Amino acid sequence: MRIAVTGGAGYIGSVVTEVLIQEGHEVLVLDNLVKGHRDAVAPEAIFAEIDLLDGSSITAVLRGFRCDAVIHMAAASLVGESVTAPAKYYRQNVVAGLALLDAMRDAGVAQLVFSSTAAVYGEPAKQPIEEDDPTTPTNPYGDTKLAVEHMLRWYAGAYGLSSSSLRYFNAAGATALNGERHDPETHLIPLVLDAAAGRRPDITIFGDDYPTPDGTCIRDYVHVEDLARAHVLALGGLAAPGICRVYNLGCGGLGYSVRDVIDTARRVTGREIPIQRAPRRPGDPARLVASSERIRRELGWTPQYSELAPIISSAWEWLRRRHLVD
Ligand SMILES: NC(=O)c1ccc[n+]([C@@H]2O[C@H](COP(=O)([O-])OP(=O)(O)OC[C@H]3O[C@@H](n4cnc5c(N)ncnc54)[C@H](O)[C@@H]3O)[C@@H](O)[C@H]2O)c1
User: Fold this and answer.
1) Which residue among the candidates 11, 141, 210, 221 is catalytic per the annotation?
2) pTM reported for the whole predicted model
3) Is the pLDDT of residue 31 over 80?
4) Closest CA to 150 of 106, 111, 120
């Protein structure tokens, strides 16, 4: 297929592009490089430096590429920033999302995989979280992703757009070519590995008195390549018009605590990782784990990485290859 990847110069989008190329697809990456890296885009892909808000240019580029489907990864995605700068999030995620959907309609592209987030669930009443559980986001980031999901539902009925939305928590790990390069970095695994590499003095544990076995928060981590394969898999079955699906992507187990991550990183790297303790952060639930049963059952998604150690190890290897380890 001929597939456009928005945000394909970013962390997950660069790996989605890698997987699409491995599977023989032709890829057009659309990215304004506000957060992405030009050198993360596979050389086999066509690259257009473009902002999704520029709808008429997006239509022209999709038409010129004779695009069959879009995988939409571009977004602003910092939860904390979304609370202090909601205008940016509604513009980057909702207004740009709408511009993309309308550009697709104008260009006659009727299939979309949308990178949503498990933040749409807010503070869930039960774990693991399933797709039909209530969606009550507690921050603008989750709310903007949910708004796009709502658009997809109405666009399916009115215009025949077919879509799959994928909801997940923490992408982690790296391939041989691409890994996490966020600035600022807010994700636990790269921060822990920066501490192991001597690039930061220590790692802070926010709260060790949660009702979990070791007192620290439990979260879901999915290897970036497994996530990328799920995005490609989710393209299948969208050929008929008006399909609107939602799938969670989770690690498939009970999740991992902050202490599990730090202890595993110590084992994998053989390095000291100094810790600081701090009080709980407001709005941090004790446990957030998503059930992946639906996508396993319906699309046969089988993650290759089911343990934390190989996930962390892949991220560490990637830092070493980039000479970022002292
Ligand atoms: N990283 C995670 O753990 C995680 C978890 C759940 C969901 N997600 C979602 O996955 C997607 C990718 O996340 P990521 O971590 O790779 O993010 P990222 O910041 O590394 O990549 C996003 C890319 O989108 C581009 N972009 C942003 N706004 C744009 C615009 N208006 N026009 C064109 N390009 C634009 C950026 O330049 C960047 O390359 C996001 O939609 C995010 O919400 C990520």
Assistant:
1) 141
2) 0.97
3) yes
4) 120
